[in-house]
Amino acid sequence: MTMRRTILLAAAIAALAAGQARAHARLIHASPRVGASVSAPPRELRLSFSESIDPAQSSVSLCTPDGRAVALGPLSLEAKDHRVVVLAIPAPLASGTYRVQWRMTSMDTHRTEGDFIFKVKP
User: Fold this and answer.
1) pTM of the model
2) Average of pLDDT values for 111-115?
3) In the chain, what are the helix, strand and coil shares in percent, each to the nearest 5?
4) Per CATH, domain 24-120 is 2.60.40.1220
5) Is the pLDDT score of 74 beyond 70?
6) Edge-to-edge strand order for the sheet containing 76-78?
7) Could you tell me which of 97, 99, 102 has the C-alpha nearest to residue 114?
8) What are the start-end ranges of the H helices in 1-122?
9) Is the pLDDT confidence value at 17 over 80?
């Protein structure tokens, strides 16, 4: 192998390793839990991510079983942990299946999105 190929190979390996070090914010935990059936309607959504979140560049929505948007309080971060997003649910939720959709931008500007459901029991 020539010296030039060796240098190019080393540079490619270094670039791949650096790219893997820049992970996106992954959803670690949610309350209500992903796929959960809860007996009491939740008063807030709490989403915990693997990285600190930029709240100005992030959003969360909640939809009813028939697809209508549920009003949520403003997106805020937990004071002691900027990886935790908190949104109040001002009005009680009726029984049914709800869908949470999130779009997060981590402080290193990487964007991720996802969704999950939870059920409120009758």
Assistant:
1) 0.79
2) 96
3) 20, 45, 40
4) yes
5) yes
6) 27-31, 44-49, 81-88, 76-78
7) 102
8) 3-21
9) no
